[in-house]
Design goal:
Blueprint lengths: L4 E3 L5 H14 L5 E6 L4 H11 L3 E8 L4 E7 L12 H4 L30
Parallel strand pairs: 1-2
Antiparallel strand pairs: 2-4, 3-4
Length: 120
Amino acid sequence: MADNELDVRGLRKPDKHPTTFATVGALAVGDSFVLVNNHDPKHLRQKFDADRAGSYAWEYIEKGPNVWRIRITKLTSTPLPRILANTNDVVRTDPDATGAVGRLEAREQPASKIPVRQAV
């Protein structure tokens, strides 16, 4: 096994993703390692896309059928921000008399839905 290889084939399934993310976290920007697995780690890739989009590179070196090798390169020191909504689409652009451009609506809650904490 090369120094820059992470072979997760012998790890328990619940340990594979955390070990891989820890390895990426320990890399310096621009450094990489080769992930070795016994199947295509497409779910891991989806997790990378969801949590670290734009902050890594994923390059298949070997695609099965028994061994997959993927070079993962760290591109940024922190994950890039994700755009969840364009606020220009959800906020009024004409301020009201107070200068507010948005408004939160308050709704009455039935008493049965108000959480009550009991003293212990």
